[in-house]
Amino acid sequence: MAVITRQTFISNPQNIPKWDIPDRDIFEALSSLRRSVDMPGSAFSDASLHVTFVLREARKNAGLTQVQLAVALGKPQSFVAKVERGERRIGIVEFIEWANALGIAAVDLFAKVEQGIRTTTA
Fold first, then answer.
1. Is residue 1 part of a domain?
2. What digits encode the pLDDT tens for the residues 25-43?
3. Total count of domains within the chain
């Protein structure tokens, strides 16, 4: 498992997140960070972190930058960055809008979230 610090998630001056670990390890790394730093469990649970992981991977798989997705959503880029870092939760309507902006059926995106949560809690 990757070992990271809070510094890994600090944005650069252009407010574009820097990730110092491979994509496939991000979920495990975020889980490790949550356990190593005093963070509220409800906002940073493994399930919540998995949602952010799925949303980030879906955006990347769609070939969109955070800025492009933010424009499609009618939100600032910081909104997308905060969601993907787990600093901000999104509701079901925002989840559907996110999926639509990526050209993915919300039910398919939700299925990925559900599958991952079942795997992490099993």
1. no
2. 555 655 555 555 544 544 5
3. 1
